[in-house]
């Protein structure tokens, strides 16, 4: 493919993509292909001779599109969103054109420096405490990771090593040091509420440390938040078993219900356990911190060690773009750098040159800062804030519609960050919960089978509930009004069909509500 | 940015990128900006109101370009290449347009299914043994990882858990099982030759296991290969210390000299240690396996557990695209899946539905299979083979030029996979090596300061050497002839200036030769 063939191909691809975005609402949002559909459509191997772009592009429409679930459709109300935007796409385009490995500053100084700059911009925009800036007195800073799960395993590994190094700080020899670490490694335990995202659990598997969850209560007027007393009780219980808590994930916006942990209480308790690394997982809801009305939530974050939010979820920047901030970058380097300290670049220690490979698990990295830069400049602060406020307003409108039909629905938690969680009201009585779960699940399944909108479900204290969250840039007030009609119609149909048609709830897979 | 604004912006960006590629040779290949250059050029925060695309695009040229090291320039002869191509860029463009989280099959069935299909295509194209196909009787298959370093930490974690589960296989209770694992975890040790890429060492840090390297010899007629006897000796030595070897990285094409370990001998030794997981790191040179004349190298790989090669290095697919193949995918799932086995999808066990989140560290993933599909179809098998053979031929031509001037140069190892490693010939005598190192380093530094080409260096058994590898699609025979002239001129200048101007070698940072 030479330059002129690429020009024609790329212009055609751009027009194809615009056509896709302009008509996306007319496509069935959730793909209904059967497993293995694509293998039947493609040959057993690559062609011997090259093919023309026109052949490839026509296969995208005929063979790939039917197997896509359209996350950019306004009818995508499932999981959490994965926002795309035109400036974000341009960022990926330039990033691909500038392909380089970027494992250290010299690989492409602009890639490193722009990342530091736009993450400082983001830090201020989110009103995070000053300690998370690259210029902070604590030596903090931000780094783009692929996903929140990568950010979390990175801080778990770092926290593990900080803790072990603390234990071995007084060792006189390498052998003594290794002995202390070997004797303690298997006692380390990471904590998280049972509403925290599963990535903490997976991060612990990777880091080879134990983990324990803390059960947190919820109700229709409160939410499922981790509190100080619950945390203290668990820490003491584990210590009495000879285990050593070294890490805690707290959450701003849990996956199931967008709950917010009680940060002030947690910070107070942890004054008694200063060796525990606290990470704030704000993967989805953290985006709301760009609006003044949410910034009180971040006031106490200086008490914690790290924070991440995904611009690729709700802030108009294409996946992947998870932004991780740490208060002291030296801990990342101590854990993840394989450059002996005496060989580290003096520019690095001064903060002028950052080798981001030492802030993450992989070595190479794409030039992802470009898309953040393009998005922030194209929308401006006011445009980004308008997007967050619009989608929250649409979500609250949907929650109000649910509330307006108490004959049909019950809210499970207060609406939060554009998310509404509710069940079908099936009245009261002896078998009430069992019946409610069966009907709610039947309604949920009917909606997704029908395919006008795509939603996900969750299970909270044995209650099967429906989640609706429309936070993509194409979501409008009317989109959610129509979604409400779809939900009401599904309830009516399930009631008409009668319980005989309702399948057993059976094993409920919590996996289905997990977002990125 | 609405559709029509995006059309104009994207068409302009495409033209800009074509102009960049068409004239890339005229830019200074290695950026010479000072650390901190970009901060001086950009504001302290994002704009309050959005800006037009034209303003952003003009800043790319004026502010970003000076800070780029141009990896796609034919004058980039450093590290290993990170090949870009026009069809690869189109793959990234569509992937961004289809932004979705892709953490399970239903998220976008096409993303999962195309990945399985094109990795089976690649498996056959590389002539890997049948056990690495998704359809194999061993339950194998391939997965796209971001980089070789991610692939390697993934298999180290998997190997660690397979080994611990093997030790605890007879435990009667969870408590007994945990006790066995706790008692052995700190005894586990991973092995690699001292020429293996540093990502094995980093992977061990992340997985929390010990690691030991095996020193391997080299000469100007052999290369730095790990052999069976060296491996057996190290295993026995570690076992006698009470350690438990559980993992080994072998390499097809080491970073410093493109050495190939002795796979047949290693496989023979490991018959006596069947619990050791062997991973073949073919990150760069693995691409050559698409040509028949290299396929004998892969004949014995069925004896090993996993293999990875990076299409983003030498096979025309934009970073990131590291392809990892395993013989038994169940070990990945046992280690990395947090879905209890009784909840796993029956489609998954049958191999019809793959949830690739359980084959990797992150949860979410981009639709990277598109770019492989576009690249393979656009070039065809013959086009890909021609690219590999052309670049190897150019590399051998460069090596012949080096050999044609024994008065100036000495080869350190035979040329391999387009890479030539050499030193400046400074004659013989008492201080020979010290002088040779000083002169060679001075020549190396002069070449990069001059900036006509960008090369890297390495240190082998105390010998400071220059590496030249031109394996990008824009590299021509004349490019390497010109590079040879640059090297010769640098030697002449350094000789003219005399030793007074030659700086001390000082601390040599092995880091500088590490590729992705």
TrEMBL record, chains A, B:
Cofactors demanded by this protein: pyridoxal 5'-phosphate
Source domain of life: Eukaryota
Pfam families found in the cross-reference section: Pyridoxal_deC (PF00282)
InterPro entries: Aromatic_deC, PyrdxlP-dep_de-COase, PyrdxlP-dep_Trfase, PyrdxlP-dep_Trfase_major, PyrdxlP-dep_Trfase_small, Pyridoxal-P_BS
Keywords of this entry: Decarboxylase, Lyase, Pyridoxal phosphate
Protein's UniProt keywords contain Lyase: yes
Keyword rRNA-binding among record annotations: no
PANTHER family assigned to the protein according to its UniProt record, in alphabetical order: GROUP II PYRIDOXAL-5-PHOSPHATE DECARBOXYLASE, MIP05841P
Entry similarity comment: Belongs to the group II decarboxylase family.
Protein name as catalogued: Aromatic-L-amino-acid decarboxylase
Taxonomic classification: Eukaryota, Fungi, Dikarya, Ascomycota, Pezizomycotina
């Amino acid at each position: 493919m030479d330059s002129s063939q690429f020009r024609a191909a790329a212009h055609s691809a751009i027009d194809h993509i615009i056509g896709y975005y302009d008509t996306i609402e007319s496509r069935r949002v959730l793909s209904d292909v059967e497993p293995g559909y694509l293998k039947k459509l493609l040959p057993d191997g690559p062609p011997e001779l090259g093919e023309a772009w026109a052949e490839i592009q026509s296969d995208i429409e005929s063979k790939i599109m039917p197997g896509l679930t359209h996350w950019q459709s306004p009818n995508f109300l499932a999981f959490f969103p994965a926002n795309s935007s035109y400036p974000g796409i341009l960022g990926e385009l330039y990033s691909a054109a500038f392909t380089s490995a970027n494992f250290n500053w010299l690989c492409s100084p602009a890639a490193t420096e722009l990342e530091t700059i736009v993450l400082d911009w983001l830090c201020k925009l989110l009103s995070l405490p000053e300690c998370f800036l690259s210029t902070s007195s604590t030596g903090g800073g931000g780094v783009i990771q692929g996903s929140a799960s990568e950010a979390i395993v990175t801080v778990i590994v770092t926290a593990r090593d900080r803790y072990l190094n603390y234990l071995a700080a007084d060792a006189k020899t390498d052998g003594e040091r290794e002995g202390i670490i070997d004797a303690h490694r298997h006692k380390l335990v990471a904590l998280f509420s049972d509403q925290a995202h599963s990535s903490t659990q997976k991060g612990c598997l990777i880091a080879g440390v134990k983990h324990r969850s803390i059960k947190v209560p919820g109700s229709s007027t409160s939410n499922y938040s981790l509190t100080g007393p619950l945390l203290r009780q668990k820490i003491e219980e584990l210590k009495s078993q000879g285990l050593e808590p070294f890490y805690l994930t707290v959450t701003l916006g849990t996956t199931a219900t967008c709950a917010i942990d009680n940060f002030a209480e947690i910070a107070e308790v942890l004054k008694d356990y200063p060796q525990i690394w606290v990470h704030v997982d704000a993967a989805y809801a953290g985006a709301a911190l760009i609006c003044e009305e949410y910034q009180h939530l971040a006031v106490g974050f200086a008490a914690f060690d790290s924070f991440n939010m995904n611009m690729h979820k709700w802030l108009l920047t294409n996946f992947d773009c998870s932004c991780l901030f740490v208060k002291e970058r030296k801990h990342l380097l101590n854990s993840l750098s394989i450059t002996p300290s005496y060989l580290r670049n003096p520019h690095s220690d001064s903060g002028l040159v950052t080798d981001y490979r030492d802030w993450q698990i992989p070595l190479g990295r794409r030039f992802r800062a470009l898309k953040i830069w393009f998005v922030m400049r194209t929308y401006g602060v006011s445009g980004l804030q308008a997007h967050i406020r619009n989608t929250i307003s649409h979500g609250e409108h949907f929650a109000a519609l649910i509330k307006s039909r108490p004959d049909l629905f019950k809210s499970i938690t207060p609406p939060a960050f554009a998310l509404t969680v509710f069940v079908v009201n099936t009245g009261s009585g002896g078998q009430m919960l069992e019946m409610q779960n069966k009907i709610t699940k039947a309604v949920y399944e009917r909606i997704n089978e029908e395919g006008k909108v795509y939603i996900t479900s969750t299970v909270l204290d044995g209650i099967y509930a429906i989640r609706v969250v429309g936070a993509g840039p194409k979501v409008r007030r009317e989109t959610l009004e129509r979604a409400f009609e779809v939900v009401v119609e599904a309830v009516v149909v399930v009631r008409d069909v009668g319980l005989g048609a309702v399948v057993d709830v059976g094993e409920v897979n919590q996996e289905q509500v997990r977002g990125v």
